[in-house]
């Protein structure tokens, strides 16, 4: 899988331009997002996640 490569300069600029949320705003954002979730898709995703037996791990080279 090929992931996009972002230059250091572009990464720094992205950090400066991203919106910042305090905890209350973040909770409100999550609550609003979850209120629009499709219950069938949520149940399917939860079932898939519960089948994971080995957590994702990045291998050391």
Notable traits:
61 residues; mainly alpha; 0% strand
Walk me through what this model shows.
This protein has 61 residues and is mainly alpha-helical. Helices cover 57% and strands 0% of the residues. The protein is built from three helices and no strands. It has helices spanning 8-17, 23-35, 39-50. It is flat.
Provide a brief overview of the structure.
The chain is an all-alpha fold and 61 residues long. It has helices at residues 8-17, 23-35, 39-50.
- Write down how many β-strands occur, each being a DSSP E stretch of 2 or more residues: 0
Q: Which spans have pLDDT < 50 for at least 5 consecutive residues? A: none
- H-E order: HHH
Rg measurement, Å: 17 Å
What is the strand and helix layout of this fold?
Layout: H1 8-17, H2 23-35, H3 39-50
């Amino acid at each position: 899988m090929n992931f996009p490569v972002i230059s250091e300069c572009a990464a720094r600029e992205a950090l400066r331009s991203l919106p910042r949320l305090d905890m209350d705003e973040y909770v409100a954002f999550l609550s609003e997002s979850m209120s629009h979730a499709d219950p069938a898709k949520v149940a399917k995703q939860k079932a898939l996640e519960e089948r994971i037996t080995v957590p994702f791990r990045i291998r050391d080279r």
